[in-house]
Amino acid sequence: MIQGEGISRLVDVSVACRYLAAQCQVKSGNWTEAMEMLGDSNPFAGSSNSGSKIPNSDGGIKVEASMCYLRGLLMLRLNRADRAKECLLEALALDVKCYEAFELLVGGEMMGIDEEWALIEGLAYREQAQEQAEFVKLMYTTRLKKFKHHAEIDTARKKLMEEYNLADNPDVMFGHADSLYAEYRWADCFAITSRILDLEAVHPSTLPLHLACMTALPHLHSRLFLLAHELVAHEPDSPSSWYAVGLWYLAVKRYGEAKKYFSSHLPQLFIGMEHIQLSNMQLAESHLAASVALCDSDPILFNELGTVAYENRKYDEALKHFSNAVSRAKEVRGSQSMWATLYVNQAHAFRKMGQLLEAKEGYMRVLEIEPRHTIAIASLGITHHLLFELEDAIARYHESLWQLMLLVYSIVRFKLILMSPSTQSPG
């Protein structure tokens, strides 16, 4: 990365290095810097080596397509949904094997039914995927919404099951179950969802469909009751668990109790948290707002609202939410260590607002709870630095580096233990 007379940075001469560097910036949370490295648009568009008709010579995914996908992901993080969609469509047009772009477009509900169909019909499968062209198109077809093109979707699924021997593939089976449910064939749908969950205990797309079938079939209500209890016992933080409880009350016509569970703030909260993980801040904010309308006392909810505001660089609003979360956390019984994340987030917001003494106090409070909290140690070093307390800053920087080295050593040591002949099973 040295730059001088006659020497260029790798990111300036290698597209692959530029893409890798942008990924590093994304992992570090430096979205603006990553976008500056990638550019606001595809710089290779229109060149002789770019276009949907040109396959990748090594058979992998084109770096150009991967860069377009990453650009689209960054656009979502920066709340530019329309541009994100354009970038993701460009990524898929450049390389049909860029499944991440397809998953984000279809799984993220970024397109309508007709738009989805037009997309998969217009992709250059033959030019880009060669021998796998038909397979890729069939897999994409089975993922589409089931309200139109029933015959084409059924044909695609049957080909995958019969010609590609994927009859027991959970994703292919889910497509079949989804179609059956849309046709009100609940018993047939339940048989398939049961088979999927036997093959793969955790298949997030299948469980809600499985529960809905049990609700629609009276003879399965007792099993729904037992399953709901099991889900709540093992996964109390999962929206599906409380959805199952609400469905059971609905099935036995106890509508008041059903409404209570369907109206719980938790499903909206968890959906909002998932959208934060997907960097879709607009949808996250919408679900969190719906959650806070149902419950205005959950500190975790206010922490997530603060996270959205922080990621949108609205630091004053973030500080308000984080402070609200901290004050409500004090009312919750339990160990203070549960709330270290709330305190460190509040301190981050103080630092961004220039309230350095408050930030310093916040990081110190975290370290009273968790003395080895690496993020708090490093952030405290930054705060000392900004306050021109240089000796304290250097000490904290060294401490955070030492904690990081210990973590790396532990990981390497663990891998060596796993690789040791003494830990291997007899041949």
Automatic annotation (TrEMBL):
<dbReference type="GO" id="GO:0051301">
    <property type="term" value="P:cell division"/>
</dbReference>
<keyword id="KW-0498">Mitosis</keyword>
<dbReference type="Pfam" id="PF13181">
    <property type="entry name" value="TPR_8"/>
</dbReference>
<keyword id="KW-0802">TPR repeat</keyword>
<dbReference type="GO" id="GO:0005737">
    <property type="term" value="C:cytoplasm"/>
</dbReference>
<feature type="repeat" description="TPR">
    <location>
        <begin position="340"/>
        <end position="373"/>
    </location>
</feature>
<dbReference type="GO" id="GO:0031145">
    <property type="term" value="P:anaphase-promoting complex-dependent catabolic process"/>
</dbReference>
<keyword id="KW-0132">Cell division</keyword>
<dbReference type="GO" id="GO:0016567">
    <property type="term" value="P:protein ubiquitination"/>
</dbReference>
<dbReference type="InterPro" id="IPR019734">
    <property type="entry name" value="TPR_rpt"/>
</dbReference>
<feature type="repeat" description="TPR">
    <location>
        <begin position="299"/>
        <end position="332"/>
    </location>
</feature>
<protein>
    <submittedName>
        <fullName>CDC16 protein</fullName>
    </submittedName>
</protein>
<keyword id="KW-0677">Repeat</keyword>
<keyword id="KW-0131">Cell cycle</keyword>
<dbReference type="GO" id="GO:0045842">
    <property type="term" value="P:positive regulation of mitotic metaphase/anaphase transition"/>
</dbReference>
<keyword id="KW-0833">Ubl conjugation pathway</keyword>
<dbReference type="GO" id="GO:0005680">
    <property type="term" value="C:anaphase-promoting complex"/>
</dbReference>
<dbReference type="InterPro" id="IPR011990">
    <property type="entry name" value="TPR-like_helical_dom_sf"/>
</dbReference>
<dbReference type="Pfam" id="PF13424">
    <property type="entry name" value="TPR_12"/>
</dbReference>
